[in-house]
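Lab notebook page, bench 4
Experiment: in silico fold of construct C2
Operator: M.H.
Input chain length: 85 residues
Purpose: comparison with the prior construct
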Amino acid sequence: MADLGYDENAWLEWAGGYLDADTAFVVAGGEGNDEEWFRHHVVDVRTGAHLGTFDARTEDAYGVIPADGGAWLTFNDGVFRHHVR
């Protein structure tokens, strides 16, 4: 978790996936001030290098569905939305 900039109190969620052949996203989570939080991050799949945070455009740690080619879907309020990096 230190590679993503977090201390030992953070964890990886059981969410993530491939955005394209070169990049994947992972979800880091934690707890602070009695409140849970999460952030999506992009990782180079060949080197494992952290490429930065990823605005998945969802408030759900598990709400991203990879759609290949740098695209993903989110599902909020009963509506699927298509996004592209």
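Observations: The chain has a mean pLDDT of 90. The two ends are 24 Å apart (CA to CA).
Next step: discuss at group meeting.
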